[in-house]
Design a protein that fits this description.
With 79 residues, the chain is α+β, with helices and mostly antiparallel strands. It contains three helices and four strands, in the order αββββαα.
């Protein structure tokens, strides 16, 4: 069925682009809402860095060598 021009225009009235919602953080820089700012801060804390170090810190591992040694000893024990 054919739609009239007014019906098509009514449907397309919702297709307009909206400007992104910007927020200003404590340092004064603008960023998109719910995204980290360019300096790597989100909700007042740093979210950039090495994810492996964060996991190691959470698990209480002090160095990578100890973690590797611990993992290899577990594998030997399973065999």
């Amino acid at each position: 069925m054919r739609h009239t021009r007014s019906h098509t225009a009514n449907r397309r009235s919702h297709h307009a682009l909206k400007s992104p919602a910007l927020s200003k953080d404590s340092s004064g820089s603008l960023h998109i809402r719910h995204r980290a700012s360019l300096d790597g801060m989100y909700k007042g804390r740093s979210v950039t860095g090495d994810p492996v170090k964060r996991v190691m810190k959470k698990q209480g591992i002090k160095s990578v060598k100890k973690a590797v040694k611990k993992a290899s000893s577990k594998k030997k024990a399973k065999k």
